Amino acid sequence: MTFDAARQVADAVLLEGYLLYPYRASAAKNQVRWQFGVLAPEGSGTAEPAASTTECLVESVREGAALDLRLRFLRVRTRLGPTGSGAADADAPGHGGAEPGSSDDGPADWDEGELREIDASVALGDTPGRVEVPFALAAAEHTDDDGTRFREERLDGAIVVETEPIDGPYGLVRVRVRVENRTDWPDPDTPRPAMLRSSLVSAHTLLHVGGGASFVSLLEPPEWASAAVADCENTHTWPVLVGEPGRRDLMLSSPIILYDHPRIAAESPADMCDGTEIDEILTLRTMALTDEEKREARATDPRAARIIDHADTLPPELLDRLHGAMRYVEDAVGSSAARAAAPGANGAPAGPTEPTALDANGGPAGSPGPPPSTDAARAAPADAPPFDPPDAPWWDPGTDAAVSPEADAVAVAGGTAAKGSRVLLRPGRRRADAQDMFLAGRRAAVEGVYFDVDGGEYLAVTLEDDLGADLHQWHGRYLYFAPEEVELLDPRTQDAP
Q1: Do residues 340 and 368 make contact, with C-beta atoms less than 8 angstroms apart?
Q2: How far apart are CA 307 and CA 313, in angstroms?
Q3: pTM exceeding 0.70
Q4: pLDDT per residue over 202-220, tens digit each?
Q5: What's the rounded Cα separation, in Å, for the pair 326 and 37?
Q6: Which residues pair with 176 in a beta bridge?
Q7: Looking at residue 385, what is its pLDDT?
Q8: Contact 38, 199 (CB under 8 A)
Q9: Do residues 78 and 91 make contact, with C-beta atoms less than 8 angstroms apart?
Q10: Location of each CATH 2.30.30 domain in the chain
Q11: Structural contact between residues 217 and 249, judged by C-beta atoms closer than 8 angstroms
Q12: φ, ψ of residue 422 in degrees (nearest 5)
């Protein structure tokens, strides 16, 4: 079994939010830790669930097909300071003993996460199957080679895998994976930090199918599988295809919702435990920390020390790469030819060879995507002249002589509005967000009338009492409202077009 193609993304899920900038135990944002994928003991009295369930579909199941899976999670262990016991401070956020950063060696007691992996396997076939894999991690206290003492609390759990064939010509099998925390927990009033030490943290599952079988995308299923996909129930996790675009033998069930075939940008050189932030900003801010702040961060956690060291030693040319990169659509999703040629499980062509029913894409049932395009653009000979892009995009008003934001007008309550009209804002007569509602009753000047590609009408306005209105006019950054969301303050004489 191999999960190497999914490891980089899976590691990013595993460490998301593990420790946040400025990477010090004393920082407020690091007082409440581990927000994703927490499976707590049943009866622990917290809002965290005790189990997660993944349901997905496997197609083209033949004799010999099998499902391998790997449960990955962080087991929280307490790093004990020179005099730390941790027991008296079980409710401390992320640590026991003294205040974090109170000694030159870092916080007295600090909770670290250590990767644990548990494997399971089940045969796929035309009969239902069930495999249960219990696991038990005993409480222990030990000392690492460097003399650091750790204590781990007891953690019991199980992986329950069930398979259920679905009637039909496509060889579909529904796979259900349930991950459970079965640790006995008698006290529902135990503080969250203590509960986390007997929890699965950042729990996620990698799944792999062999024997010519392949997974069905739950995000973009073929039409023939849409009803079966709709019947899948996923709780506290969501499965997506991983690996190169077109590959369908590998899946990641993550507590963070991802899209199919997620990947880490090639320009991202290190895991900074914050996939929602911009690497360049984090790196520059980390480089700007004082020596004292860096010393405290290094003493907080080994992963924090690696982040600080990475920022301090990053070569200028790699830092420049973080500033930005161009991506084209074909680069992001893969060309149709690459998708069609991508191997499925075991290096065989993806999708079944029998039965030869056609799916909604017009190709063989279970094919990874639509057949190669035969439109004129792709069928052009190799010596065809290069595409000459227009001077302006097609949606720019300047490319359509029939559209003129400065001259067009639309009917509104009280008359007709055009550039220069004064209006009263009345949002809420259609779906509006909080930002719009804050502007209810304000007076505004119409800067132009715009139409979207669906024929919708919009008034671009600036607020009369906005001291920065002239800057918004200069940049062309307006607020937009539909005609029914404004009332005319000074009726004009022209009729609506």
Answers
A1: yes
A2: 10
A3: no
A4: 999 999 998 889 999 999 9
A5: 33
A6: 55, 162
A7: 54
A8: yes
A9: no
A10: 402-488
A11: no
A12: -105, 130
